[in-house]
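hi support,

uploading two proteins for the ticket. first:
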Amino acid sequence: MTQVALFHFPGACSSVTRNALEEIGLKYDVPVVNILAGEQKTPEYLSINPKGKVPALRVEDLVLTENAAILHHLNAIYPETGLLPREEAKLGMNQNLQDLVWCSATLHPMTRQVRNPMRFTTGETNGVWTRGIELWQPVLKALQEHFETASWWYGEVWSIVDVFIYWNYTTAAGGGLDLSPYPAITRHADRVQSRPSFQRTFALDKETFERAGIQLPG
């Protein structure tokens, strides 16, 4: 049996990766990397992922890093599970990859500005937070318009991109981003939360927190 391990911190973007593994139905181990305690910067973890981030996915002796790349790889290996819609194999047909990179390289930094502005500065954080809120506004407007007529990011077909988008806007909401003017986004969140794989991920993350004895700030 293939040995798979997800280096993970519950609630971080690695929860999207865990959701993908649950959707696929893979058996995997979950070494917890307590990013609140700085474990991502320890020599032990840097020997696994020199970038010092979660997630990292170890498959046998291969270690994959960067969420967009991991999710794209999982879809390529398990296309029948529908993590992403099928695309023609020809030049320019990579919308799935574009959307994953958008979630990780554009939305995620904005989310971090709102949820953890102190990671962008050694001084006051109000300006960083305010700018993060500003950057989110056109995205929220676009998401609202999209989900007014579509159940999922790709129309009527669920994908892991929906989970990644959900993770971004809900994590930013935890830092003060106001989602209340956007009912279509709220409905999208409800649909994401209703997926069995999401519910398993949420329950497993809660169990992982409790087993590891991790206390969240506040």
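and the second one:
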Amino acid sequence: MGLPLQVMTLDEFLAWENAQPDKHEFYRGEVFAMTGGRRSHGRVLLSLGRRLMEQVDGSGCQVFVDSMKVQVANDTILYPDVFVTCDAADLATDMIFRAPKLVIEVLSPSTQAYDRSQKFALYRRLDSLQEYVLVDPETRRIESFRRHPEGFWVLHDMSQDEAMLLPCIDGRVSLALVFEGLDPPA
């Protein structure tokens, strides 16, 4: 997250954001511009979206990629890279989602620290969230934080595994398919 562009209320932000050509996140009255992604980021997003749609087909859940707003609280609007929701209100909304059960962030050098720390802390405010996954196209690392029934989060490093397991949606995606179309890591 960079320097804030301006300060406004949530309603002011939503009215303003809907008229903008670019995406912006909102946190405690401050507006932050989103940066564009690299080719590897886009490839992983599309691959994850496609594979997850196959996983949830017929389950009553839906997958959304890249340009949908998630309201974490009255003071926070974020744009997850990929998320899955099964919530009836979410499945009926056109613009703002409030109950994802799975959020995936595809890391980039400029957002990695934010996605691992502050953004994860913000997402943990969602009672619906069961799993937060970080995918790094550069290093081929996949780390999942899963909510334990007692409320704490447990790290599952799947970087050396054959597949990315997503138990919150009974999902499994081969790592080869997650990173399909990317150059081999350096």
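thanks. also noticed: Residues 41-178 form a domain with the tt1808, chain A fold (CATH 3.90.1570.10).
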